[in-house]
Design goal:
Elements (H helix, E strand, L loop, with lengths): L1 E8 L3 H12 L4 E6 L4 E9 L2 E8 L21 E8 L3 H10 L8 E6 L5 E6 L10 E4 L15 E9 L2 H11 L6 E4 L4 E8 L2 E5 L1
Length: about 200
């Protein structure tokens, strides 16, 4: 499994996107709306088949019946909340992880339309509460978001801190994640990513 995307959640999508675009001097791409969840997103490539998703409330949707994903309803500022690892057979990946002592949760079917009207469908497991262990995503036959010509920045650093880093390493090993995630001890679970272009750099935490 490798990095599919980072999730940067915000209480105000337009404001956060404007700040990132100014900092990096890059134009982000409209991803689409998530019907029933009350959210929409913007995307930025990170090189290869990896990207950054900025997700926030969609004021043009009716309020959802339940909470928005990634704790968006309780955020007071933008946060790097979690990340996704790409798999090609999510049911087999979940079964292997459970055999190794880690339960990623049951895969769920998801979909959204792009601004051009293309339907994207994928399956994913629920995001972990800590956020340091990735949720799994399987795009199946759907065209991957990075294949749509996203503007790209460089992901120069991806780090994590946790009170029990060995426990996180065990979970990552159970998922068979292959990623150079720098994992250190810290009192509060934290993810940090550093993005760079020729015109600027930005740290997301």
């Amino acid at each position: 499994m490798t990095l599919d995307h980072l999730v940067y959640a915000t209480p105000n999508l337009d404001t956060t996107v404007a700040e990132i675009e100014q900092q990096l001097d890059v134009q982000m791409v409209e991803g689409g709306r998530h019907p029933g969840l009350g959210t929409r997103n913007r995307l930025l490539g990170l090189g290869g088949r990896a990207y950054l998703e900025i997700i926030g409330p969609d004021p043009e949707q009716e309020p959802p019946t339940g909470p928005r994903p990634f704790g968006i309803d309780t955020l007071t500022m933008a946060r790097l909340v979690t990340w996704a690892a790409a798999v090609t057979d999510i049911d087999a990946a979940v079964a292997r992880a459970r055999e190794r002592g880690y339960d990623p949760g049951d895969p769920q079917d998801m979909s959204r339309h792009t601004p051009s009207g293309e339907l994207l469908s994928w399956r994913l497991t629920p995001p972990s509460k800590a956020g340091l262990v990735p949720f799994l995503i399987d795009w199946g036959a759907t065209r991957h978001p990075t294949e749509t010509g996203l503007p790209t920045v460089e992901l120069t650093s991806f780090r994590a801190r946790h009170p029990d880093p060995e426990a996180i390493r065990r979970d990552l090993s159970a998922l068979d994640v292959h990623l150079d995630l720098d994992l250190d001890h810290g009192t509060t679970p934290t993810l940090t990513a550093v993005l760079r272009t020729d015109r600027g750099s930005l740290t997301l935490t």
